[in-house]
Amino acid sequence: MEEKFAIKLKHICMEQKGHRQGLQNISLTVQPGESIAFLQKEKTQELYNSLKKLLSHSGEPAFGILRINGTIKALENAPGFFHVNASGRRNIYRKGAEHGLKKIEIEELEEEIVAFAELGDMIDEPVKTYSEEMRMQLAFAFIYCMRGSILLMDPTITLKEEAFQKKCQRKLEDWIQAGGTLIQVTNSADAANFFCKRGIILINGRLVEDSPISEVLEIFQHL
Question: Contact at 8 Å (CB) between 130 and 92?
Fold first, then answer.
């Protein structure tokens, strides 16, 4: 019987700038339907960038074997994610095209994304007029509705509006239960506990703990 997995890393080493190892001898298997927090006290953005490059195949490991079953979408709070002079609605079409969707496919998703984002009439206003929270709501709605099977969350993602945060949690729980895989990079115990059931602690790029999230957070908080 063929083994089922979403991501498999075997002895992965990946260099970062300055000839430092971003990932050092990492071996793990991520199953469909898992929600995993990669926890690191410092340099979480560097860790996220390393994982994103690795999983998107834009950066090859210096050593090791990588296998992926599924499509990966990255949810991030990065400059340039949206075109600020265009409206939220126009950005849906722009981002959809960047992800390889045809216009008719974007049209089929448009109203679902608009409804999820809960921006009301602001969806037709330039993104430069949005608060950071509104941009995050639109980004989350877009990436969630894109139907990727693996979601990678940037450590800068924060949702301050409690009702929308809980809505996202419910949506993600349903998606994970249906076989979606969530990978979150963070240095926040609260963020990890909110979304994830499994935790992985990295110190200087080395995996030092891989356990249920409650056990991992107890260790992490004493590092």
Answer: no
